[in-house]
Design a protein that fits this description.
Oligomer: single chain
Order of helices and strands: HHHEEHHHHHHH
Strand content: under 5%
Number of helices: 10
Distance between the termini: 85 Å
CATH class of the domain at 156-287: Mainly Alpha
CATH superfamily of the domain at 156-287: Cytochrome c-like domain
Largest sheet: 2 strands, antiparallel
Structural class: mainly alpha
């Protein structure tokens, strides 16, 4: 059955039907010319009308598989035409006349999908898509600053003070402060975002922990490995010593058992969380 061309088969069916219709019409005309009447002629007239209408439809629509440069007729749309914008299409709704919209301001793409697409899967954000400077959007100061083992270089310290940057920026970029309209607004926004995205694991104080020593819900119920202490203590002394850009990178791409939040927390809010985390570290260490 699969070796039979569907168009050829249906054209043969239509040809046989038209041939049968032609015989019925000829028989009807011949009997009508002889003056025959009765129920038989009524049936013949009806059949002649049906076959004649079928012949007209075939003449108008053409045979199956017939090639034409004209637009095909669709009596049953079958989702062929939908009320949607196609790629690169025009739109009278938007002022620029384009249906494809640009990414929202202050956002960066979150590359990578759950399953590898035809275009491939990107492990890191595509730098060609970034619309601003590297320091603000990635927290990276010098991408070539690497240790001997290839790890990102740490900040430079001298007399207990930062003397130079390594791989990551040492401090929150001024652009983040300007966009927030000042430090107070940045820290306030950071507190809100920290409580929404971070406190479930690290606790409202940022001390993490697990079981009876947990400050967050996830650690208290043993739903994951012990969340890190982000403010102080021997368990995780690295957090206060990290550069601001490294903390930003951890929020963006995750670290250890912590998943990435770059796809759901925008750039400005990530810097706000870093700012509030510094406040928690200062408050905690000041009491010790």
């Amino acid at each position: 059955m699969y070796m039979i061309d569907a168009n050829v088969f249906m054209n043969w069916v239509m040809a046989v039907t038209l041939g049968a219709g032609a015989l019925v019409i000829l028989a009807t005309l011949a009997l009508a010319a002889r003056g025959r009447r009765g129920p038989l002629m009524s049936y013949l007239y009806m059949l002649s009308g049906l076959f004649g209408a079928f012949a007209v439809v075939v003449v108008v629509l053409g045979l199956r598989g017939q090639k034409s440069e004209n637009r095909p007729w669709h009596f049953f749309l079958d989702m062929k035409y939908q009320a949607k914008y196609t790629s690169q299409g025009q739109s009278n709704f938007f002022a620029d006349g384009r249906s494809n919209r640009l990414p929202p301001a202050d956002t960066i793409p979150f590359d990578g999908t759950d399953y590898a697409a035809d275009a491939g899967r990107h492990a890191d954000p595509n730098p060609d898509f970034l619309r601003g400077d590297r320091r603000y959007y990635t927290g990276v100061a010098d991408p070539d600053a690497k240790d001997k083992d290839g790890a990102p270089a740490k900040p430079q310290w001298k007399d207990g003070k930062l003397a130079g940057e390594g791989f990551y920026v040492n401090h929150i970029p001024p652009e983040a402060v300007e966009r927030a309209n000042g430090w107070d607004a940045l820290v306030k926004r950071g507190r809100h975002q920290f409580n929404v995205h971070c406190s479930a694991c690290h606790g409202a104080s940022g001390r993490g922990g697990q079981n009876e020593l947990a400050y967050g819900t996830v650690g208290a119920y043993g739903l994951s490995v012990k969340p890190a202490n982000l403010v102080s203590g021997a368990e995780a002394p690295f957090a206060p010593a990290q550069a601001d850009g490294e903390l930003f990178n951890t929020i963006t791409n995750g670290k250890g058992s912590m998943t990435a939040y770059g796809h759901q927390v925008k750039v400005q809010d990530r810097w706000a969380i870093v700012a509030y985390l510094r406040v928690l570290q200062y408050a905690t260490n000041g009491k010790q």
